[in-house]
UniProtKB/TrEMBL annotation:
Binding site for Zn(2+): 53
PROSITE patterns in the record: PDEASE_I_2
SUPFAM superfamilies reported in the protein's UniProt record: HD-domain/PDEase-like
UniProt superkingdom: Eukaryota
GO MF, one annotated term: 3',5'-cyclic-nucleotide phosphodiesterase activity
GO terms classed as biological process: signal transduction
Positions of the PDEase domain: 1-150
Keyword annotations from UniProtKB, A to Z: Hydrolase, Metal-binding
Protein name: PDEase domain-containing protein
Lineage: Eukaryota, Metazoa, Chordata, Craniata, Vertebrata
Length: 173
């Protein structure tokens, strides 16, 4: 049991995402998944735990946004510590380069969406799977909208900065 639990936990390693996703796709394509088989059952438990681990974008927007911001703040704190100790800043941990919307869009596009689409196939597009995919789609659209807004505000700010400096110089002389 200890080995099986360890295997379930290790399956959540994001670096093994493609390995598990490829295997799940192959099983679903070949229609050779047999839940009577101990190995197949264990594999599907690993997939279920992976889904549970990354399901935040599949929740209602308000809750998903709140937890996404918390996770990104944790990433940014790590990046700040790495910078403080003059280490290379880890991917997604540089708040000067990595915006929360762009992090979330990438996470949804490359990690969450592919896995949950296959999970929906496995469950026969159950009502729960469909609901989760709807939330995922809605949340991704929300983050894309916020990213566009951030880019517009950044553009506006950079265009106004020279004028602001001119005004500041004018009033201080």
């Amino acid at each position: 049991i200890e080995q099986q639990l360890g295997s379930l936990i290790l399956a959540t390693d994001i670096n093994r995402q493609n390995e598990f996703l490829t295997r799940l796709k192959a099983h679903l394509h070949n229609k050779d998944l047999r839940l009577e088989d101990v190995r197949d059952r264990h594999f599907m438990l690993q997939i279920a735990l992976k889904c549970a681990d990354i399901c935040n974008p599949c929740r209602i927007w308000e809750m998903s946004k709140q937890w996404s911001e918390r996770v990104c703040e944790e990433f940014y704190r790590q990046g700040d510590l790495e910078q403080k100790f003059e280490l290379e800043i880890s991917p997604l941990c540089n708040q000067q380069k990595d915006s929360i919307p762009s992090i979330q869009i990438g996470f949804m596009t490359y990690i969450v969406e592919p896995l949950f689409r296959e999970w929906a196939r496995f469950t026969g597009n159950s009502a729960l799977s469909e609901s989760m995919l709807r939330h995922l789609s809605h949340n991704k659209a929300q983050w894309k909208s916020l990213l566009r807004l951030c880019k517009q505000l950044f553009s506006l700010f950079t265009n106004l900065l020279p004028q602001a400096k001119f005004c500041l110089a004018f009033f201080t002389n």
